[in-house]
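Quick one before lunch.
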Amino acid sequence: MKTNSSPVWGGRFKKPLAQKTVKFNESISFDKKLAQFDILGSQAHAEMLAKQGIISEFESHAIINGLKKISKKINSNKIEFSEEAEDIHMNIELFLIKEIGDTAKKLHTGRSRNDQVALDLRLYVKHEIQNIQNLLNNLNISIEHIAYFHKETILPGYTHLQKAQPITLEKYLKAYQSMFLRDTTRLNDCLVRMDYSPLGAGALAGTSLPIDREFTAKKLGFNGVIENSIDAVSDRDFIIEFISAASIIITHLSRFSEDMIIWATEEFNFIKLDDAYATGSSLMPNKKNPDIPELIRGKTGRIFGNLMGILTVMKALPLGYNKDLQEDKEGLFDTVETIKNCLDIFNDFLNSITFQTDNMKISATNSYIWSTHLLEQLVKQGIAFRIAHEIIGNLVIYCLDNNKYFSQLTKEECDKISPHIFSSIKLIH
Ligand code: ARG
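Model of the arginine complex:
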């Protein structure tokens, strides 16, 4: 006979679990993060069961109210989760039994933890996508604001990390803005595809009870139901897709960070770091280090790792639920927290930066980055592109050999290379 401490599935078992099995098997230490979504799902399920006449209205109300109380207790940390109850789903079911008695034992009717966990995860990812989109939006507002003041700020644009052509700081910043905008729409795409409810899929084959899947899907804000019950409980492609999108976001953040790290060097000196967003050295009194962008660059490793993790968990998994799927959570939670932290602090970091526009200008002036402009001036005068390319190439060699920039050349020096150069130089400066 089942004792009080047996798991909810204990009826078929003669012996209790070994303590090591309990420890190894549990997910409550991390899936407690899903508590509020689990409760929302259960409340919708209980309401549906009553609507379908599977349980009474009275029982449904008792369950829904009991869950409300549990939700409040969890929010105020008044509940202690137990490893023995394995995961968030069984913890809450057991709390409910304690709260309202035997009626709670009807909650799991027509449902399995397999569709329940898939539901919780979808609700969680949907919720967090919105938070991440808000953070992306905040960052883009900051970029817009900063860029507004730098429509005329010239700085060298780089290819191969070699000075290439002049650009404006506005254009530079808006390149990242475009990437973050695409990141937002990428998350939207992910959201649209995952916005279907797995609830009612049961363990894998649905149920013979007359449940109404459309009702719970609508109640929980989904666009519809996942038609195939095996698909509903088996796949985690929405997690793979979400972490892929997060990997692209952190890649963009990492590149932006890398640029700021380079710009903060004494050699570049394009930005000054705010004391509140930089750190010192325990040994070298002169140091001011860009730890924030460095850490963001480093955290790409975690998120890429999480993507590899979930891809590997899913690869070659037999169709249907397998306990391997419990390993989908920690990497997902870590990805969400990491990407939110990085977006948030990078926004503050960006707003704290002083752009050294004079240094950018000097760097752009003391260089040959106007060469392509000059070449195009010659093309406008009817000179073939390849010939113009060679003329300006020769001019650059002349300048390098004589330690001069274009603006310092005399007419005689220019005319020695081509009669078209001198007037063109005037046009580009
Ligand atoms: N804790 C489990 C997980 O995270 C919940 C589903 C358990 N299902 C099962 N058939 N054992 O995946």
